[in-house]
Recover the amino acids of this structure.
């Protein structure tokens, strides 16, 4: 075993289904060292994709940084054990023989059980057996004295008669970033917003401005700004990262800095994700208020402008054009990307039929761009059921990619359109 392998840990990175490859690209982009490691002949086979996750073997000391820097994952789990098991006595025996002192604080734990395509299918009974096994282990050797109590979450998964035990390292889901005080109706989850921005910026390259004409509480814009930055969610101890309650990650230099988000170092220098200016528009003033207060909490008010504007109102300023008000540099147009998550007609009703609404919306976004803006790319979320109403091109932009995912239980798509003139 090489030195690096001896300090390695098997992790499962939970990501929104549909974004597995993109999430791996984020890891590759931000942690080139891991990928180099992953490409070594002995480790290459440990990079596995399954729906909604990536299995990876990484040096143990990377666990905190993965949490602070990756923005697409929902959570990160440590793979503990995997064994074939087709009856309850064997399950009990296996569980009571595992070294739980290494994974739990005191004898506290919480179980999440699921079973499919396995002889052991009764999830309640699996849970009871695992729980009895852990208690038996601690009856034989008393738990370490806990200095600060914490309940780790253990995942027990049965698939095809293989039992996989994992431990959550993240605590609260990672999309709960903690910068939002209030949010508007139907906000996008932060990690989905991060994924969409990363997809768009990979397609179009660097831009000077990012515009969201239906920004709501600003999630898409904030996540674009945050993508290249280190972030910790600054919560109470109960909401802390679970890995902080493990001796392996107790060293002070592995602790998150409780301060403003930091630009990342070498791996993210020249990050194409970071535009210079961010413009958010919405017709709803209370959503814009929420956005402004989040910008304050993030300490990034200077980069952001939030203005009231109705995309479908004929009487808004400059004949419906988005009021950007940016000083032009030497008569040069500002290179911008537009990203939006419009209403789906579910929680927010559409003013006309979806057949008419989505094509009109995209036309307006492109036609009504301010005169001094050159739109290089457009990324838009559309309910899958309505996607057929959207053409392959919008003005000078042509569709280049579609991502399928779910938002709030609804099948949706993210369509990326690129300017043919500016094509990379
Ligand atoms: C699904 S939400 C977008 C939420 C946002 N992406 C977020 O994550 O917070 C749609 C937003 O579009 C806004 N909206 C709907 N029709 C609009 C219009 N005609 N002009 C401007 N904004 C509009 C709504 O007020 C709402 O905030």
């Amino acid at each position: 075993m090489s030195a690096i392998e001896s300090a390695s840990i098997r992790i499962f990175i939970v990501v929104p289904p549909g974004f597995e490859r993109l999430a791996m690209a984020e890891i590759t982009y931000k942690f080139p060292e891991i990928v180099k490691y992953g490409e070594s002949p002995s480790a290459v086979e440990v990079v596995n994709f399954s729906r909604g996750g990536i299995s990876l073997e990484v040096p143990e000391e990377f666990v905190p940084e993965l949490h602070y820097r990756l923005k697409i994952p929902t959570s990160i789990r440590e793979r503990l054990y995997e064994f074939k098991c087709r009856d309850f006595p064997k399950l009990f025996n296996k569980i009571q023989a595992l070294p739980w002192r290494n994974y739990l604080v005191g004898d506290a734990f919480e179980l999440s059980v699921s079973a499919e395509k396995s002889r052991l299918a009764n999830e309640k009974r699996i849970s009871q057996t695992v729980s009895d096994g852990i208690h038996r282990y601690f009856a034989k050797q008393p738990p370490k004295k806990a200095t600060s109590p914490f309940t780790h979450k253990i995942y027990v998964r049965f698939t095809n008669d293989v039992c996989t035990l994992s431990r959550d390292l993240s605590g609260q889901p990672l999309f709960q970033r903690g910068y939002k005080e209030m949010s508007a109706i139907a906000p996008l989850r932060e990690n989905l917003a991060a994924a969409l921005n990363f997809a768009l910026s990979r397609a179009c390259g660097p831009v000077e401005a990012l515009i969201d004409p239906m920004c709501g509480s600003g999630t898409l814009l904030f996540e674009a700004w945050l993508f290249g930055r280190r972030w910790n969610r600054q919560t109470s101890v109960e909401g802390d990262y679970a890995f902080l309650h493990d001796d392996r990650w107790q060293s002070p230099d592995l602790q998150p800095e409780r301060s403003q988000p930091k630009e990342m170092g070498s791996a993210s220098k020249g990050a194409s994700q970071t535009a210079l200016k961010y413009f958010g528009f919405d017709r709803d003033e209370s959503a814009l208020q929420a956005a402004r207060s989040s910008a304050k909490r993030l300490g990034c008010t200077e980069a952001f402008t939030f203005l009231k504007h109705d995309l479908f109102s004929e009487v808004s300023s400059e004949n419906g054009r988005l009021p950007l008000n940016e000083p032009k540099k030497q008569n040069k147009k500002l290179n911008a990307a537009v990203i939006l998550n419009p209403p789906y007609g579910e929680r927010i009703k559409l003013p006309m039929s979806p057949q008419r609404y989505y094509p009109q919306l995209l036309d307006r976004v492109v036609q009504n761009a301010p005169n001094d803006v050159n739109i290089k790319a457009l990324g838009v979320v559309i309910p899958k059921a309505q996607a057929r109403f959207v053409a392959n091109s919008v003005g000078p932009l042509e569709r280049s990619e579609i991502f399928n995912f779910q938002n709030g239980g609804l099948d949706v798509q993210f369509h990326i359109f690129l300017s043919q003139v500016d094509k990379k």
In short: The first strand starts at residue 8 and ends at 14.
